[in-house]
Amino acid sequence: MSKKGELVRRVLLENYESYYRLAFSYAHQEADAMDIVQEGAYKAMLKADTLREDSFAGTWVYRIMINEAKEYLRKKRMDRMETEEGFAAPEEHYRDMDLEKALDKLSKTEKAIIILRYYEDKQLSEIADILQENLSTVKSRLYRALRKLRETLLESQ
Amino acid sequence: MEMDDYRKIEERILASKGDYRHIPVSKEMEVKLNASIERAEADKKKKMRHRICATAAAAALLVILPNTGAEAAYAMGSLPVVGKLFQAVTFRDYQYENEGFDANVEVPQIVVDDVEKTDEGETGKEIGNAEQAVEEINFDIEQVTNQLIEEFQESAELGESHGTLEIHHETVTDNENYFTLKLSIFQAAGSGYQSYKFYTIDKKTGKRIQIGDLFKEGSDYVEILSENIKEQMRAKMSEDEGNMYWVDDEDMPEWNWEGIKDDQNFYFDAEGNIVIVFDEYEVAPGYMGAQEFTVERPVFEGMLRE
């Protein structure tokens, strides 16, 4: 295994639980969450040698995982439309179920920002690196997401 | 929304942190993760064998060339090594138009011409570098554009009122030394945002480069280029009161442009000057749009790597 490959492998093994929870927050199904992490890990390992700087490995793998989750869900939604198969009941884990539902109403990027910021303790600058966006864009997206959450939660009261 | 409301909603989110962190991770996950890693390594080895074959072909070419006379020998000694090998092609075309939403997206991929087709005397190492650089750039383009398309589709589906996504590409430099692909991205939902990505390959080594790779070790290119651009900004502001750049602003020092970044967008124009490119809002208010500054060759020529 190449040096970069070894590095990415270590990042994957150290953080797979975080990737799984993030994937699960989108998919709400154990099997889907595992598929997302597996496919993301495959891509990251395959492309490990294209990683520019070792210090980017953490944000780079996160970006691949988030993209994988988005892509996976889009494909799945399209398959379902074709087969007219119903959605399986989502598996939920929050005691604050209203909040969990409100999070699902956010766009996928907004949701990623909330999770990374509040549940994974990432700095906004790190989130900007992960999403490859300006810091100011991330900030305005975060405030917008908080506003949306508040509106949804006020309605559900 | 009041500051207090933000705080309350943040507190409510944080109250579920424990539940989030306790989402049970499937026991099979680690096993499956390792299986994915092994699958990727196996597929990579397959590809590597393929690459070694290509390199062997290039090596064979080298052995034959010296026997074909002075011209071939001259060609071998002459640079650039990787010749005119790179080309950008539209790889994915995404068009969408419906009720206030329109997208016009051309996603490029760089392709490297076949080794056998060229007679410039490439060596396997440069071709290997070139293939890796191209793979890296193509993957980056794919990730960036996928994400933008995804966000666009999502805002259309969420029933927001309107949105625009435009992505185009252009080869801005293709001379004996460098190949540069420019990706222009325009996103709008209400206000618009123009940004760019520039990808440059050094044809002599086949490697992808950033601006710092152009200059000799230890040279003060950041300071010299940045100061040159700041001078140009100052000149433009004094020329026309409507021009505004974030430079020397004492009221808002944190908005001032800090100088050339490691991953600064740039390209060489036809005269060999360096053009520095800024996204909208990067060095000036939105009404100024995206900005380009040309730094004349004499300013930096002495610092260039041989």
List keywords for this structure.
heterodimer; A: 157 residues; Rna Polymerase Sigma Factor, Chain: A; Arc Repressor Mutant, subunit A; 2 domains; 7 helices; 76% helix; B: alpha+beta; Actin, Chain A, domain 4; six-stranded mixed beta sheet; three-stranded antiparallel beta sheet
Structure, briefly:
Chain A is mostly helical and 157 residues long. Helices cover 76% and strands 0% of the residues of chain A.
Task: Describe the overall structure.
The complex is a heterodimer of chains A (157) and B (306). Chain A is an all-alpha fold and 157 residues long. Chain A folds into two domains: 1-91, Orthogonal Bundle (Rna Polymerase Sigma Factor, Chain: A); 94-157, Winged helix-like DNA-binding domain superfamily/Winged helix DNA-binding domain (Arc Repressor Mutant, subunit A), CATH 1.10.10. Helices cover 76% and strands 0% of the residues of chain A. Chain A is built from seven helices and no strands. The mean pLDDT of chain A is 88. Chain B has 306 residues and is of the alpha+beta class. Chain B has a domain at 213-306: Alpha-Beta Complex (Actin, Chain A, domain 4), CATH 3.90.640. A six-stranded mixed beta sheet of chain B has the order 1-2-3-4-5-6, covered by helices on one side. Chain B has a three-stranded antiparallel beta sheet with strand order 7-8-9. In chain B, helix 3 (29-64) crosses helix 5 (124-157). The longest helix of chain B is centred in the N-terminal third of the chain and has 36 residues, at 29-64. The N and C termini of chain B lie far apart (58 Å). At the A-B interface, helix 1, helix 2, helix 3, helix 5 and helix 7 of A face helix 1, helix 2, helix 3 and helix 5 of B.
